[in-house]
Amino acid sequence: MRSVLLYWFGMRVLSGLLLFVGLLLIGPLVTLASGQVRFDNDWRTASHHVAGIAPDPAERREAIIQVYAARAFNWRAAFGVHTWIAIKPENAPAFTVYEVVGWNAYRGGDAVVASVKPPDTHWYDAPPEVIGELRGPEAAAAIPRVLAAVKSYPYRRLYRAWPGPNSNTFVAHIARHVPELRLDLPPTAIGKDYIPGGGVFAKAPSGTGYQVSLFGILGVLAAVEEGLEVNILALTAGIDPLDLALKIPGIGRVGFGTGTAG
Fold first, then answer.
1. What are phi and psi of 115, to 5 degrees?
2. Which of 6, 149, 207, 225 gives the lowest tally of CB atoms within 10 Å of its CB?
3. Residues 6 or more apart from 40 whose CB is under 8 A from it?
């Protein structure tokens, strides 16, 4: 009788877990069905053309910080986005883009890449979206701290697409050091909840609340800017009362103030 009860209990737990994981995967499956994910693109020929949404440094002389997001490459696009940050000091003739690129780390190089280029280039065919910005004196004051945060990023030789550290871990690290950005990273930014240094408690990337996270796999975040988020298996679901939006794994934000990158 005891073995029967244990078997019944075990099957109930297993079926519950399978149902829960299935619910988490509904969003990525919908994203696949929507046509946002391409499996036929080749990284060697994929487009990096300029989207034309960034300010022209020749016309806008003030200091600027911008954060961008675009759907990840190939099948990863069903789950998440790639993010990066760009800065332009006052009167600078061009932007410098800082991002984490996984294959550099795989080859034993520095995962953090700095490039003088337009900040709004497509990410392997995926169009970019501005998700955070500072301009003028506030940006000028924050740029030294952005550069310090880039320098202090602790995973320059390590990259993991899931659950991190990755490009979103990098941008979240910078955001925590520059709270003026009030950066609300998309729920599809897998890796944003991977707290550097193995910590389990940290400020939210926006600086307007706090989060608890176990290696980016399981956690909870509550903040004015992000709202309430639950992270399970690095997939984020939640609600943003400030923007009247839901946050759905794979899909991103649904409601007011939503964007193409999730």
1. -135, 135
2. 6
3. none
